[in-house]
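Methods: example folding runs. The two proteins below were folded one after another, and each record is reproduced exactly as written to the output file, sequence line first and structure-token line second.
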Amino acid sequence: MKDDLDSSRSLDVEDGSNDGTFRYLVQKGLIGERPRVEGRYRGYGLKKSCDRWVALDRHGKEIGSLPVHETDIWMSDPAVPSTVGVPTPEVATEILGLARQLRLLTKPTNALSSAGYLVQSLRQLSVIEGLTERNPFIIGIERVALLRQLLETDGPVTRELLRCIVELGQTVSRDQVADQYPVIVRRALEEIGSRIPRAILAEAIKHRKLIERTAAKASTSRRAPGVLEHRVSPRLEWLVDLGYLSKDGIRKNTFEYRVMPEAVQLLSDLDARFGEKEMESSVASGQWRSNPSWNHFRERIGPMPFPESLLKAYKLLRRRVGPSSLRDVTLLTALLSEHDVSFGEVHKDIIDYAAKAPGVSLSGGRYSRDPQNIHIAETELGLTQ
């Protein structure tokens, strides 16, 4: 991963298609008019002179091309909603840590989990359907699975964070939300206290007390962004990536946000379903149907009737060996369905279908006898005679 984050390619200063990337580098302060002795672009300078870009080497001599990190080329794309938090080789371990926290990677080996495979499959479908470019910072259909994982791992805090920003008004800042973070954590803990194991509850209480102590210290001193801001910033940026906050009309590298109507609807869905079994999948599939900012994704997917939707979902998620996650197949089937059906309704349809289709079998998981996995034979998929 470090090599990928450190890769670069030379961009011709005379090529007009590179103008956006060069402007991004200058606006972000990543490169200056004079060559610098430190930073990602040490030894290089870049400036606009007489309506043309001029790149300089470490000796101040003009050069015809500038080596630019691939991540900066991606981030300079106008379709990227926010330019806060550019990944660098130095934070590669943190990126892997986030993927593990979202349960996209398994902890011992960093292998793709079932959820990670779902995200990867939806990403590939987005590229195939032309819904997104290969720029990893432009999220396609996989946003549905990412929303589910966010709610699964951070649902209570995300819910109260949404409540906070909706109450604050149409435009909010990171600092405003950070000031309210102790309240957000307290509300979240009050909601889940009776639903989680005692050991996890004890850790959650310790976290709440830490946040309260941090807030008390912060109120008596002027400081640079600290613990509260650093806990709030990633969550706000995730909501930007998923379309619930926006920076339209605001500089993309600032910590100010516009609250979209979709955020109000997501909060309403979470309030209505909070505490339900498979709440995360139900809300994510419901958002797929109701979120107007996702319309262009739905229109391009080509909805289909059941069981064709199930068979296509299974093909997309089929592993080389073994069954697939019933939960993931159900979510993808709901996305592909031509009817406005809930996650629970699709789950029941699949259970009923498996009971009568000879090539479909369900199996329990390691800790449960309830159906957790699904296997569909190649004959049922129409892959063999």
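Second run, written to the same file directly after the first:
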Amino acid sequence: MTQELNIQTIHQAQAGNAQSLSAVAEQVRQKVQTYIYRLTLNYHLTQDLTQETVLEMIKSLPKLKVPHIDGFWGWIFRTALGKVQHHFRLQGARRLAQKTTSDDFVLESQASEDNNPMNALVSD
């Protein structure tokens, strides 16, 4: 079992210590993976979003102000939640675009049919 993450390890990772960064990334990966899986219930999506969250942490860590460990975890979990929300927001927009396109096709095909009763009303 890995040792619990502490604020000193985070500060060392911020200073550029590769071993500390690796330890922080592994701790974050483990906890975030569990959190995201509980939100998505999809293993492959969890892997993708966990990786995105860890990469965001690595990219932002040098400029992140971390006075205590609770603030760090709060930031990590909020970042993970944002990744999940963004994914589902994009997925919903794609579904809406597909539905709108298919609805337009159905409406156009129905309007162009010769046996459509609406055509009789319009032509009179």
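Comment on the second run: The radius of gyration is 25 Å.
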